[in-house]
Design brief:
It comes from Devosia limi DSM 17137. By secondary structure, the protein is an alpha+beta fold. Among the domains are: about 170 residues, no CATH class; about 100 residues; about 220 residues, no CATH class; about 160 residues, no CATH class; about 140 residues. It is built from 19 helices and 58 strands.
Length: about 1200
């Protein structure tokens, strides 16, 4: 029974409870809307309108919910609530007391305003009296608080407001804690308020923090409520530093503390303290600020402090591997704080430490319009009495600082200023040097730029433009245009530059570009003019797009280069042109000194100047190989060379290479000098010469080499191995071959200048060690049709050189030998018999001495063999050429000869001296054909001669000397002494015509030769004339006597010889030494002598002698006739006596006859008289030189009639 009672009671309870749950759902609670609006209006002090549905449930706890609530007028509500849900205490609710235990406001929106007068209004006036509704806690979901400043038209919205509100009453105290979103940032906030006193004042405290914990803002003070609220208290802003993993990177919070007085018109921060790092209490800033609110918002702030410094870097970091501190500082620059209002700020700090350097006496005055800062002046000081000034505009650009303005840096001691970024040297060129830099500075994004900059150094202005990238764009772009930089200015400028060799520069500026120019500067102790350097670096390489200088220590260049790798192993490629004038250019001397170039190499390289070389060095391929191409002009040669470097330029001396190139020139002598062979005329008649080069191998191990110099069909080539010895000498072993029109060039290469050699073609083994030693062995070759062999050596000791060797020739031509001694030019023919070309044995002293022994089986003249088995020494010294100890066979005899020529030099006149000895040499072996045909015999003799002149012709004019000779078996053709017997045997010489007699004598001379067993004589040479005087030779049947002059210049002959009978007795007395004197007159020249017989004297003498003989004969006849006349007279006397007797008888007859006879006698007497006048007695006849007429007149009537005597 009891159980049934319990069941009934339980069912009733259940029904009652079900009714309590279900019944309210069937009640129209909208009918109670007015009651609810009245209760809310009573609590809020403002009309409340519920426009949405209303629901109520009693159990399990009284809960009232309604939606779309409007507080205030419908048109301009002070607040709206999307939905309200309230839980009440059941017991209190049943007593008609509405104790709200939980209130949920969904999507509440509260609008607050500040009117144009700065008065605050909310449209809600919370009732402070006793109300039937009490609230202990309220939850706000997705709320919104909007504040509108009518003065500025701005609206501040805190959205997504979620939190719990606890309050004892609507007049306080109350507490709110929750989150809200402002400007897309989520914040957590707390707000506490004490009970509002009768004056409307309450103590409040607040706390605000972003959900990411970036900072906290707390405040505490007295809030005066009302339409003109005021706050007087303190605020603390604490900002957390960026998260840092290393413990050393942990920093304290930024703390800002200040007394604050705030109203709707102004906020005043008096005596604030700012600590950027609360762990570093010494770094603190103080100041004051005033913020004007309203339509004309503005602020005015001052900042002051002592020493303010940035926190130190991590002590464990390696600064050498990190960017420069300035770059890191720029990278870390925060965007400027830009208050959303205009204002101004003044900063005055004793020192600002920026880690790498400090700014002292910092003064900053700036204003802002809310979008940017205008810095009217910023002044700071650096070491070296340096003042930094800046002015311009500072903005925030996408979260990064931006600045545009003017900056100037003026220093009185650049040495102290430059010490900030580089370690000064012992002798600092910047000591006490003033300088300044000014220009327009732009900071934006990740770059700092200086444009229109003017760098003043030693009162000289230079143009500078600079762009410094940082953050994600670390690079440096520099443009500098220097004026004239002297030695001091150049050194000072170099001392100003940061150290670019360290890792810090590469880390700070992995990329960059530069454009540098200078009218003049001194770089590496060299004076450079019109200097330009343009390029960039990056990706591990430095690229010069243009690097040029009109003059850099005597060298000009314009190149484009790319440098990669490291300083220890740089990789260089590029192209350009390099010009150099002289070897003493300071830049070249410095380069040689730095490379420790041996003096011999310097001298060799100097010969190729001036030069202009165009080069192209390709980048290294995947195997590190490079190709170097050279072109242009070196000295007088056009250069074309390609070098394939398997190890690149850096491995050129240690890795395999291949070099192919040519040198071409239209001035062969000049190119020969350029190659280091002096004035050797290897190709004297060539108009163009080419030198081909080919080298293969590793320079340190030796190069297989082929060097060929060619000109037309002529060439000289070396093929073999080249090696650079430890003493920097180039050593070579190989084969040399060539074909030369004149081999004198080879002699000149050995230092034997002035020695002329004919055409040669051949080869030899060559070994040389620099210029110190050279050996030619196994020489084989030909000169025309003449072959030769031998060996030569050249050795140098100190400043002297010696050539020695031996050469065997198939034959030697006298002309070639003369050309070798006197030079080919000396053999140029003139108008006379002697060459008239200049003797040339060199216009300078030779650098070597030498002796070459020459042997040859034949010495020829004009291709005809003249001598045999010749040997001689061809020697020379600095100034003299000598053909010494010449010895050769000629016929059955021998000739020795020695001649020297002196001296090499600029003087045209040369002195030639020598000796000649003949031993048993036939005249026909050495005399010209004409003389050889006329003379015969074997000569033994000697000659010494000397002359000075510029040519052979000049030498002949002044030749001097002496000599003697002996000719055995001397003969003179067509000078037969038998002519005397022939003449003596002639009959009727008196009746012969002189011409006929001369013909008879001439024909008689041609019947044989004059012969003498020996002829000895001596001669002298003076003034170019050889004189042979008083020569007498006795031969078979005749003797010769006379003299001869030889004019050497013309080879002219002038002399006469008389042949007289010797040991000849003419019984007729016609021929004797006085009458038979045959005179031979010599004229013409030695090659073409003229032999003239002068027979007139002999014919005249013979005729005179024949006339004398005839006269003697006639005198004898006359004597006989007189004897006959005497005998006849005696006979007449006898007859007279006999005839007297008959005389008378015949007197008459005789008288007639007598008269006839007398007439006849007169006629005879006249004839006799005439005869006596014509006939002169021989004893009284004068000596005449003309021909005598020895014919006798006819004798008429001498013997006519007996006894008739002529009358005398």
């Amino acid at each position: 029974m009891l159980n049934r009672i319990y069941i009934i009671i339980g069912v009733l309870a259940i029904i009652a409870l079900a009714g309590a749950f279900i019944a309210p759902r069937f009640i129209q609670w909208g009918d109670y809307r007015d009651r609810m609006e009245a209760l809310a209006t009573e609590a809020l002090g403002e009309d409340v309108t519920i426009r949405g549905d209303i629901e109520f449930s009693l159990l399990p706890q009284p809960r009232l919910s309604f939606t779309d609530v409007v507080v205030g007028s419908i048109e301009a509500p002070a607040a709206t609530v999307g939905a309200v849900e309230a839980d009440f205490s059941l017991m209190e609710f049943l007593r008609d007391n509405y104790n709200v235990t939980r209130l949920v406001l969904a999507q509440p929106v509260i609008d607050l305003t500040i009117d144009e007068n700065g008065l605050f209004g909310s449209g809600i006036e919370v009732a402070t009296g006793k109300s039937a509704v009490s609230l202990a806690q309220a939850s706000i979901i997705d709320g919104t608080v909007r504040l509108e400043d009518v003065r500025t038209g701005e609206r501040f919205v805190a959205a997504n407001l979620d939190g719990d509100l606890r309050l004892a009453s609507f007049s306080g105290p109350f507490q709110f804690q929750g989150t809200a979103e402002f400007n897309a940032q989520r914040y957590s906030l707390r707000f506490n308020s004490a009970l509002v006193d009768v004056d409307g004042n309450t103590r409040i405290s607040s706390f605000l923090q972003p959900v990411d914990g970036a900072f906290t803002l707390s405040s505490e003070g007295i809030l005066s409520t009302g339409i003109a609220p005021k706050f007087d208290g303190a605020i603390v802003l604490r900002q957390a530093p960026p998260a840092a993993e290393p413990a050393a990177g942990i920093r304290g919070d930024l703390v800002f503390e200040s007394k604050v007085q705030a109203s709707t018109d102004r906020i005043v921060l008096s005596g604030y303290v700012l600590q950027p790092d609360e762990n570093r209490a010494s770094a603190r800033l103080t100041g004051a600020a005033s913020i004007q609110l309203g339509e004309r918002r503005s602020f005015d702030a001052v900042v002051s402090g002592g020493v303010f410094s940035l926190p130190p870097r991590d002590a464990s970091e390696d600064a050498t591997l990190l960017p420069f501190e300035l770059v890191r500082l720029l990278d870390e620059l925060p965007p400027p704080l830009l208050p959303p209002m205009p204002g101004r700020v003044g900063v005055d700090l004793a020192e600002v430490g920026l880690r790498g350097f400090s700014l002292r006496q910092v003064r900053l005055d700036a204003t802002t319009d809310g979008t940017s800062w205008e810095i009217s002046q910023a002044i700071a000081h650096l070491p070296g009495d340096t003042e930094v000034r800046a002015s311009g505009s500072l903005i925030s650009n996408e979260g990064l600082p931006g600045f545009t303005g003017q900056v100037s840096i003026s220093s009185q001691r650049l040495d102290a200023l430059a010490a900030l970024w580089r370690k000064p040297g012992d002798d600092n060129p910047l000591f006490n040097v003033p300088g300044s830099l000014e220009g327009k500075v732009m900071l934006g994004g990740s770059a700092l730029g200086l444009s229109g900059g003017v760098l003043t150094l030693e009162e000289t202005a230079h143009a500078v433009d600079l762009r410094l990238g940082f953050a994600d764009e670390r690079r440096l772009d520099v443009t500098v245009h220097f004026a004239d930089l002297g030695k001091a200015e150049s050194a000072a400028m170099a001392a100003l530059l940061p150290d670019t060799s360290g890792a810090g520069f590469a880390t700070s500026f992995p990329d960059g570009s530069f454009t540098v120019s200078a009218k003049s500067a001194r770089i590496a102790e060299q004076v450079a003019t019109t200097l330009v350097a343009e390029g960039q670096w990056g990706d591990g390489q430095l690229q010069f797009t243009r690097l040029s200088a009109q003059d850099f220590g005597g060298v000009g260049f314009e190149v484009a280069l790319t440098l990669q790798g490291t300083l220890a192993d740089p990789q260089v490629s590029g192209s350009g042109v390099i010009r150099a004038g002289t070897a003493d250019a300071p830049a070249l001397v410095a380069l040689h000194d730095r490379a420790d170039t041996p003096a011999s190499w310097r001298d060799a390289l100097a010969l190729s100047l001036p030069g202009e070389v165009i080069f192209d060095l390709t980048p290294a391929n995947t195997e590190g190989a490079q190709t170097l191409t050279l072109g242009g002009r070196l000295g007088v040669a056009d250069l074309d060379l390609t070098a394939q470097l398997s190890g690149g330029l850096n491995g050129a001396l240690t890795q395999a290479l291949r070099i192919n190139g040519t040198l071409e020139s239209r001035d062969p002598p000049a190119l020969t000098r350029q190659l280091g062979f002096g004035d050797a005329e290897v190709f004297p008649d060539a108009g163009e010469i080419m030198v081909a080069l080919n080298f293969v191998g590793v320079p340190g191990e030796g190069l297989k080499s082929q060097v060929t110099a060619s000109a037309g069909e002529e060439y000289l080539s070396f093929s073999g191995d080249l090696l650079v010895a430890g003493n920097a000498e180039i050593e070579g072993t190989g084969t040399i071959e060539g074909k030369l029109v004149e081999a004198a060039g080879l002699a000149q290469l050995a230092g034997a200048r002035g020695l002329s050699l004919p055409m040669a073609e051949g080869h030899a083994d060559l070994h040389f060690e620099g210029r110190r030693l050279a050996r030619l062995t196994g020489i084989e070759g030909r000169s025309g049709e003449t072959g030769f062999t031998g060996e030569l050596s050249l050795s140098r000791t100190g400043g002297s050189a010696m050539v020695a060797g031996a050469v065997a020739l198939d034959s030697v031509d006298v002309t070639a030998l003369a050309a070798a001694m006197f030079g080919p030019a000396a053999l140029i023919r003139g108008s006379g018999p002697w060459p008239d070309g200049p003797i040339d044995i060199g216009d300078t002293a030779r650098s070597t001495r030498g002796t070459v022994a020459v042997t040859t089986p034949a010495v020829t003249v004009g291709g005809a063999s003249m001598m045999r088995d010749a040997k001689f020494d061809l020697s020379w010294d600095e100034t003299r050429m000598r053909l010494a100890r010449f010895e050769a066979g000629i016929g059955t005899g021998k000739v020795t000869f020695d001649v020297s020529v002196c001296c090499s030099g600029p003087l045209a006149d040369k002195t030639v001296a020598g000796r000649l000895t003949l031993d048993g040499v036939g005249i026909d072996e050495i005399a010209p054909p004409a003389l050889a045909d006329a003379l015969g015999g074997v000569i033994d003799g000697g000659l010494r001669f000397e002359a000075t002149g510029a040519s052979f012709a000049a030498l002949a004019q002044v030749l001097a000397g002496e000599g003697n000779f002996t000719i055995a078996d001397f003969t003179v053709d067509k000078l037969d002494p038998g002519v005397f017997a022939t003449v003596a045997a002639l009959d009727g010489v008196l009746e012969m015509d002189a011409d006929a007699l001369g013909i008879i004598i001439g024909q008689g001379l041609e019947q044989g030769a004059f012969k003498a067993p020996e002829l000895a004589g001596a001669f002298t040479i003076a003034g170019g004339v050889a004189r042979l005087a008083n020569l007498i030779v006795e031969g078979d049947g005749a003797s010769l006597a006379g003299g001869l002059n030889l004019t050497v210049e013309t080879l002219g002959l002038d002399g006469s010889f008389a042949m007289t009978p010797l040991g000849f007795d003419d019984p007729n007395g016609l021929v004797d030494a006085n009458t038979a004197r045959i005179v031979t007159r010599l004229s013409g020249t030695v090659p073409a002598p003229v032999n003239a017989l002068d027979l007139d004297i002999m014919v005249a003498a013979l005729q005179v002698r024949a006339n004398e003989i005839e006269v003697d004969r006639l005198e004898a006849l006359r004597a006989e006739d007189a004897e006959r006349q005497r005998a006849a007279a005696e006979e007449r006397n006898r007859l007279i006596a006999e005839q007297r007797r008959i005389a008378a008888e015949e007197a008459a007859r005789l008288a007639e006859e007598e008269e006839a006879r007398r007439q006849e006698e007169l006629r005879v007497q006249e004839e006799q008289r005439l005869l006596e006048q014509q006939v002169v007695p021989p004893a009284e006849a004068p000596v005449t030189t003309g021909p005598l007429d020895l014919s006798l007149p006819p004798i008429n009537g001498q013997f006519q009639g007996g006894g008739i005597q002529p009358q005398f």
